[in-house]
Amino acid sequence: MTDRIILAGILVLAAVYFWATSQIPTLEIGDPLGPKAFPRLLGVGLLITAAMLLAEIIRDRKAQKPAVAAETASGGSTGVIVLAVVVTAIFFVSFETLGYVLSVAAYLLIMMNYFNKRGRWLINSLTAVIYAVGSYFIFTKALGVNLPQGVLPF
Amino acid sequence: MDTFQHILNGFLVCIQPINLWYTFVGVFLGTIVGVLPGIGPSASIALLIPITFGMEPTSALIMMCGIYYGTKYGGSTTAILIRTPGEAASVMTSIDGYEMAKKGRAGAALAVSAIGSFIAGTLGVIGLTLFAVPLASMALKFGPAEYFTLMVFAMTAVSTLTGKSAAKGMLATILGLMISTIGIDLQSGQARFTMGIAEFQDGVGFVVVVVGLFAIAEVLRGLSSVHSGTAPEAMKISGKLWLTKEEWTRSIGPIWRGGVIGFIIGVLPGAGGTIASIMSYTTEKRMSKNPEEFGKGAIEGVAGPEAANNSDTAGAMVPLLTLGIPGGGATAVLMGAFIMYGIQPGPLLFQNRPDLVWGLINSMYIGNIMLLILNLPLIGVFVRLLYIPPGILYPLIIAISVIGAYGINGSPMDLYLILLFGVVGYVFDKVDIPVAPLVLSLVLGGMMEQSFRQAMTISGANPKIFFGSAITVTLVVMSVISILIPFILPKLKQFKEEGKDE
Question: Which residue of B has its CA nearest to A10?
Answer without folding.
Answer: B171
